[in-house]
# Entry
Amino acid sequence: MDFFGMTLASLENFFHQQGENKAKAKILFKSVYRNRQAVENIAEFSDKTKQLIMDNFNFDLPKQVTMQDDGKTAKALLSFSNGNKAETVIMRHDYGAGLCVSTQIGCSMGCKFCQSGKLKKRRDLTAGEMTSQVLFMRQYCEIKHISIMGIGEPLDNFDNLKDFIEILSCPYGLAFGGKNITLSTCGIIPQIKRLSEINCQFNLAVSLHAPTDELRSQIMPINKKYGIAELIETVKEYSDNYGKRIAFEYILLDGINDSAENAVQLAELIKGINCYVNLIPYNETESSEFKRSKNADIFFDTLKKSGVNAIFRREFGTGIKAACGQLSSEYD
Ligand code: SF4
# Structure
């Protein structure tokens, strides 16, 4: 079994089934995740317990295929046990580093502005493969914040995501507080309604990118299934229930969704929600069908005048293709 995919509860269950004291699960979690110890060095365990653990679990991290680092951003292409590969990115902010975790090999959501969406989903990543991205990258720098917004739609891989967040936030495990975890979704409404099943108060970011169904359906096929009105209602409910401030992500595409009129429509749409808008400059790639907006400042000013909290997302990693919408994965 992959140790990094085990929640504390499943590990306790394992020890219990082996006729061992389940308290050993907490010691093992703490030793591996907090103290970064190898099993053979855990002083609290007898040789018999160490052998039991080593016979039943593997602690392998993914292999590094490439690593590009421009000083502010580090992007690794990692190869998982079956040879599938995905990228993960560290962004070094002044206040600490954030890691952007991938949840799938490819993505089926097909957002038109996203490189990852062109790959089609090959498979879901397991909880262990998500955890192992954190463990691999923390060898390079201390990570303060986790953004679950790399390759893939996290809510299209709900059960593995749930276990991953449990491991991530477990006080005996990686111990990230909810305020240091951000989950981003393109808006799979039934799964947003299931978020209460995850026992962690993380931040929710919603990839909105357009203020009307007509426009959103053109650039995000998911909108044909789950329209804007129901999405906004569901997100408002989530925000009200958990007292959470929602981040609406909005990528500015030249001549597509960046007019002053679009800004007014957006302000009207999200009125009454505890939220802010994260404006994202578009990162062009060789195969881009869109251009970076020239109207970004006017869009921003119009939002502000309409009473919306808005910020521009700081740009990271464009030079090494590690920025939003530029990540890729490989199948073999
Ligand atoms: S933006 Fe997210 S959901 Fe859309 S295609 Fe890209 S990875 Fe998938």
Q: What stands out?
A: The CA atoms of residues 192 and 235 lie 8 Å apart. The pocket of iron/sulfur cluster is lined by residues 107, 109-111, 114, 116-117, 151-153, 186, 207 (CB under 6 Å). The first helix runs from residue 8 to 17. The first strand starts at residue 63 and ends at 69.
